[in-house]
Every structure is written in C-alpha cells, then in structure tokens.
Specification:
With about 120 residues, the chain is mainly alpha-helical. The chain has 2 domains: about 55 residues, 434 Repressor (Amino-terminal Domain), CATH 1.10.260; about 40 residues, no CATH class. The chain has 7 helices and no strands. Helix 3 packs across helix 5. The longest helix is centred in the middle third of the chain and has 12 residues. The chain is elongated. The two termini are about 35 Å apart.
C-alpha cells in the first residue's frame, strides 16, 4: 500500500456517507438536492463501498453536498522507477519530456532539468 493510501484510507462507510454525516444531512436531503430518489442515493453510497459506482454518479453526489470530487492515481514504487528510467534515458526508445521530469519531481524523485534542446 502506498504512503498516500495509508495516510488517507477510505472511511469504512465510504466518503459519501462520511461527508453526508459530517454535514448532518440525511440521504433524503442529498437526494433532493441531486434530483434523484432517496433509494437511488442510497445505492450511490452502497456502490461506493462496493467499488461499483461510476465517477459521474460520484461527482453528482458530491456536487449535491457542495463538494468537489478529486480523482487521481498514484503509481506504485516499481512504476515510478520505470518512469524515472525513461526520463533519464536508461530505457531504449524512451522519449524525454518535461512532463516526465515534472512527474518525477512530483514523486520526490526529481531528475534534473531537460537538456536545452528538449525544452
């Protein structure tokens, strides 16, 4: 498990339920704001905990609670090393780009500046 996943684990009841309860909202209230039935909203919360909810539905439910959905991927260490190899030219046929260098810096594995001809 990555450091980010360990530092911010998903709450047992899911983020939708946790945020709804934090704001002291009922499922019926959130459903009304989302323009759906209470039963449909309940399925959103169940879908989140079972990993079957779509991003669109998750975004819709978040918006009904005046929240923004933030979605991102964090590479595992092995993949991060692969990106670092490509950025430093250790893999054949690798294309060096500023985005790869920026990605490495994001992972706290900064690889230095690109050569002048690639900037």
């Amino acid at each position: 498990m990555t450091a980010a996943a360990q530092s911010i684990p998903q709450p047992v009841g899911g983020w939708l339920r946790t945020m709804r309860q934090t704001f002291s909202l009922t499922q019926a209230t959130v459903a009304e704001k989302a323009g759906i039935s209470q039963q449909a909203y309940a399925q959103f919360e169940t879908g989140e905990t079972s990993s079957t909810i779509s991003l669109g539905r998750l975004r819709h439910a978040a918006a009904a609670m005046n929240c923004e959905l933030v979605y991102f991927l964090i590479p595992r260490q092995v993949q991060a090393k692969s990106v670092a190899k490509r950025a430093t030219g250790l893999e054949p046929n690798a294309v060096r780009s500023q985005s790869v260098v920026n990605f490495g810096a994001l992972l706290d594995q900064a690889m230095g500046e690109l050569p002048v001809e690639l900037r």
